[in-house]
């Protein structure tokens, strides 16, 4: 069986189980392309190792590719497509976990200023600014924000309908007065150059189409450079558009601490708002910034002293 046919069968099997399997399918397609038109049982360990190693430094993508190929070859082995697995028997040490970038309020202001005064061939200044405010105010995933249609943005009830996002979840996301006004102003302007079709995208390109993730990230990269927002911690990656989601969550947690709220009790609500399946996905935000750690430590100290006084 040819490698592309085996991969198509495997991807079809995974998706029939209800899995999206988009990222893994993309990796396997890249693997098939690098192997050429070979039978799946003719692929040698040296070729697989070259695909895993790539051309750059070791990153976590090595382990992502390795895990994806492990599942694929188990599938092939169980069905007799191959008689042996050409994967390495040992894995290199996994590099340090990537740390998201948390934008300061000053950096957010500079990014918005850069967005307001800059338009690209694909995305105008108003769309760029609206997208930044939407991500920062709601913590939506980039794909969720770009997938919003006109019918999903209910400005009267101040709620967003996020449909079929990660894990096939659909949820309602309440929005505040300020963001509602921003989206209302954008809606009024975008409707002058696009039909009022409920299934039309809310965020538009300069040509009236849906903004792609690649286009949004390219525009953000230019805005970030203009705003002179960059990392100084030696990390390999510069601040990303997706980091606005992390910044939104951390900002909310810091405000709760400042207001004296019971953060542990509020975490499940934040998890639901962000679209997390498990609360553990939200708890990771508790250790992201020194200010947040300071608030959490002070809260624990107060709790400890109160308990000690009752002992």
UniProtKB/TrEMBL annotation:
Q: Where is the Tyr recombinase domain?
A: 98-298
Q: Which UniProt keywords apply?
A: Chromosome partition, DNA integration, DNA recombination
Q: Which PROSITE patterns match?
A: TYR_RECOMBINASE
Q: Which Pfam families match?
A: Phage_integrase
Q: What is this protein called?
A: Tyrosine-type recombinase/integrase
């Amino acid at each position: 069986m040819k490698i592309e046919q085996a991969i198509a069968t495997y991807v079809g099997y995974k998706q029939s189980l209800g899995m999206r399997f988009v990222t893994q399918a993309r990796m396997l397609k890249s693997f098939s392309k690098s192997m050429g038109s070979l039978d799946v049982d003719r692929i040698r360990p040296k070729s697989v190792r070259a695909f895993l190693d790539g051309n750059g430094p070791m990153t976590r993508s090595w382990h992502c590719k390795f895990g994806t190929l492990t599942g694929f070859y188990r599938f092939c082995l169980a069905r007799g497509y191959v008689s042996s697995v050409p994967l390495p028997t040992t894995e290199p040490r996994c590099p340090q976990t990537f740390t998201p970038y948390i934008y300061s309020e000053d950096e957010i202001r500079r990014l918005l200023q850069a967005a307001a005064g800059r338009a690209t061939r694909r995305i105008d200044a108003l769309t760029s600014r609206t997208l930044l405010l939407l991500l920062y105010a709601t913590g939506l995933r980039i794909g969720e924000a770009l997938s919003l249609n006109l019918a999903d943005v209910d400005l009267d009830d101040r709620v967003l309908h996020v449909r079929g996002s990660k894990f096939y979840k659909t949820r309602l996301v309440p929005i505040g007065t300020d963001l509602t006004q921003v989206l209302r102003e954008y809606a009024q302007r975008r409707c002058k150059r696009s039909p009022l079709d409920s299934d039309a995208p809310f965020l538009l390109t300069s040509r009236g189409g849906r903004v792609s993730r690649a286009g949004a990230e390219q525009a953000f990269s230019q805005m970030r450079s203009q705003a002179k927002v960059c990392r100084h911690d030696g990390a390999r990656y510069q601040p990303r558009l997706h980091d606005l989601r992390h910044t939104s969550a951390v900002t909310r947690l810091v405000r709760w601490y400042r207001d004296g709220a019971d953060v542990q009790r509020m975490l499940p609500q934040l998890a639901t708002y962000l679209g997390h399946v498990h609360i553990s996905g939200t708890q990771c935000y508790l250790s992201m910034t020194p200010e947040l750690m300071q608030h959490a430590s002070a809260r624990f100290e107060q709790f400890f002293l109160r308990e000690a006084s009752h002992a």
